[in-house]
Amino acid sequence: MENRLPTGYAEFLADLKERIRRARVKAALSVNRELILLYWEIGRMILERQRKEGWGSKVIDRLAQDLRREFPDLKGFSARNLKYMRAFAEAYPDKKFVQEVLAQITWYHNITLLEKVKDPTERIWYIQQTIEHGWSRNVLVHQIESGLYHRKGKAITNFDRTLPAPQSDLAQEMLKDPYVFDFLGLTEDIRERELEKQLIARIRDFLLELGVGFAFVGSQVHLEVGGEDFYLDLLFYHLKLRCYVVIELKTGEFKPEYAGKMNFYLSAVDDLLRHPDDRPSIGIILCKSKNKVIVEYALRDTTKPIGVSSYRLTRALPEEIKSSLPSVEELERELKK
């Protein structure tokens, strides 16, 4: 076996061992940063040898055996992980970016991003969000699988006209479309009050889906206006925007009158609840579905900042799975047999 190894393998292995030893000493001071840089260096070196000398995957298998024999107390040198290192170095050729950005998140975060996000721009966005919000790996997986990158900032709003910059940009970025409430396990024919109750019962999951900065104030919040009683479905306070956020839930399609009602609610909240230091309250109308043109007309002349988003109770199936499922007609034929 030894004779069949490619030229330069022994020197290459010795060099890797020395790098690993040096990294272990530094790791006492900065474990994660040194680990990420070490893995990137190993991946880069493997990549270079494969490109220049045509090393195949079998050499990686042998390399894994030798490194684990030399460092039996370390778990990161399996053949699979060495291949991740190679993919990591290939995806991020800029060492400075690895040092300054990627070393701020764990190796498991980096592997997750490599496996689940193929578009480089989208991947960098998730990296930045993970660093900014301190997402755990499980939260990162949830955000990727729910398609957060493609949903964030997509709601139809009038913020550019009703809020000053930069609050209008921050508020727009706060909203998603659609919101995904698959954690509720509900059917599509649910009533508004039941949807509200279930969201409150799962408030931690609901806050995760809403995004960073939302603080729950209450449900069915009472307002008295002109001697009459009114109730807000859900009331939040956004810590970053420094304003109240009123959320109204609608289990059907958006209707123009919803915008007028929300405009009224926001006027009341600004008058009765808003502190002088708070910024203007924002309204979010969550509907099962919406017609983009109708929403834009409904919001055009409203004076209060309002956004309209749809929601889903189940996560959309991938196309390859969806195409393999039987149709209703096929199921009916099978049941009749």
TrEMBL record:
Pfam families assigned to the protein according to its UniProt record, in alphabetical order: DUF1016_N (PF17761), YhcG_C (PF06250)
InterPro entries per UniProt: PD-DEXK-like_domain, tRNA_endonuc-like_dom_sf, YhcG_C, YhcG_N
Example GO molecular function: nucleic acid binding
Superkingdom: Bacteria
Domain YhcG PDDEXK nuclease: 172-326
Domain YhcG N-terminal: 15-151
Protein known as: DUF1016 domain-containing protein
